[in-house]
Amino acid sequence: MRLLPPAFTAPLAVALVAGALVFAGCGDSAAPEGTTGAATAGTTSAAAAPSGDRQERVVHSVLPMDMDGADSKDMFAAMQLALDERGADHGAIRVTLAMNNDSGPDGNSDPARVATIARKVVADPASIGIIGTITSSGSKVMQPITNRASLPILGISATAVGLTRRTDGRPGMPPDVAPTGKPNLARLVPNDARQSLALAAYMREESVGDLVIINDGETYGVGLTESVVRDAKRAGIRVQDVLVMKSNADAARVGREAAVKLADSRGTPAVLIAGNSAAASVAATKAAALANDQLLIFGPDSMALRGVYANLGSAVERRVYITSYLLPVEYYGPLGVEVFGRLAAKLGRKPTPTALYAYEAMDLLLASIGEALPDAAAIKGKTVKQQRAAVTAALLHTFDRGSVVGTYSIDVHGDTTNTLYGAYRVENKDLVRGQAIDTGATG
């Protein structure tokens, strides 16, 4: 492990771990809106036939299936692979998988559509859990709906701190997402408090002196901005301004404005772009980079999607630096590498590494269902809500679990104990030159 220079390590207490990147690209109620029913080809395993006394339950994926790039398709395929490999029978339950498409007109996850799906999933007594959605804005509207119903969610990419922790310093769960006061989200990726430290570390490593932050005014972008403002200053980076891109069409203008503000920078100038829209992120990145050829562009995990980094163009991508909970594949150990290979064989191409988290989400949910509802006696007398609550409790008691994404536990808030973030460059439409940033020393 290579530590950062002492002057950098002291204020941030963050270590960078060198590592090469090994991947090239990275009941009878109506089905929910956007859902592919359990009997539809390609959405469930062959193990969906009746099985004695086991009760049928449905795990729902909620993903933007129309999003540019194959990320959502890879994630759904990984969930299906986990179900195929682990089998459908877990304790007293037989599981099937249903697809829910939360894409809006632009292909991105639409919070209004997420809310509609969540209400219909909750109303179906066969529903036993949700995996997704990919954005913090979507998760924020889905969580209170599912929280009141005790329906567990497996978070595989939404990273906003406020999904699991209050940001006002008061104890307990955030009331806007957990009105019951109890968590129902188990998040498999580190939150943005960790990502902010990783971004500050990466910027400092690249000698950034002045920074302008662009966000989209939404849950993810605003929360990350607040954290980065604090951590960048601690790292000795001057935050010159925070700009908001109000729409996709507005993104290029804001990108150019950021470039102008950094024209007289006293150190290496940089722009951080934090938003959920792939189109807006690409537009802002291109505009800022082309308006100031000295700029470095930093992006968080929302830019680690293939639909973003692969569309930047050769003139821009060489100046783009991205952090993500995704790690170089070898960091996940032999099991992660093996599953990644099996998924690649299933797809006929290299999948996005995000798919490993989708695989683990399904695997963990299946294990928790089996633990919480092991036999008919465990179900007898329990309401649907009580059954869901039992599965949620099992998820939140995950401890020292070895998995395809490494060994981790879930804390009392629903967050993973994993503290590693990946740091990447973009080259020839791929994420390359991966290294891991360990944010764990910050506590």
Describe the protein's topology.
Blueprint: H1 6-12, E1 15-18, E2 35-36, E3 55-63, H2 71-86, E4 89-90, E5 93-101, H3 111-123, E6 127-132, H4 136-148, E7 153-155, E8 185-187, H5 192-205, E9 208-215, H6 219-234, E10 238-244, H7 248-261, E11 268-274, H8 278-291, E12 296-299, H9 306-309, H10 314-317, E13 320-324, H11 333-347, H12 354-372, H13 376-379, H14 384-396, E14 420-427, E15 430-438
Parallel strand pairs: 3-5, 3-6, 6-7, 7-8, 9-10, 9-11, 11-12, 12-13
Antiparallel strand pairs: 1-15, 2-5, 4-5, 13-14, 14-15
Helix pairs in contact: 2-12, 3-4, 5-6, 7-8, 12-14
Q: How would you sum up this structure, described in words?
A:
This protein has helices at residues 6-12, 71-86, 111-123, 136-148, 192-205, 219-234, 248-261, 278-291, 306-309, 314-317, 333-347, 354-372, 376-379, 384-396, and strands at 15-18, 35-36, 55-63, 89-90, 93-101, 127-132, 153-155, 185-187, 208-215, 238-244, 268-274, 296-299, 320-324, 420-427, 430-438. The strands form 2 sheets. Strands 1-15-14-13-12-11-9-10 form an 8-stranded mixed β-sheet, with helices on both faces. Strands 2, 3, 4, 5, 6, 7 and 8 form a 7-stranded mixed β-sheet that branches. Helix 5 crosses helix 6 (219-234) and helix 7 runs parallel beside helix 8 (278-291). It folds into 2 domains: 6-21 and 193-324 and 421-442, Rossmann fold (3-Layer(aba) Sandwich), CATH 3.40.50.2300; 35-190 and 332-412, 3-Layer(aba) Sandwich (Rossmann fold), CATH 3.40.50. Strand 9, helix 6 and strand 10 form a beta-alpha-beta unit. The chain contains 14 helices and 15 strands. The relative contact order is 0.16. With 443 residues, it is of the alpha/beta class. It is globular.
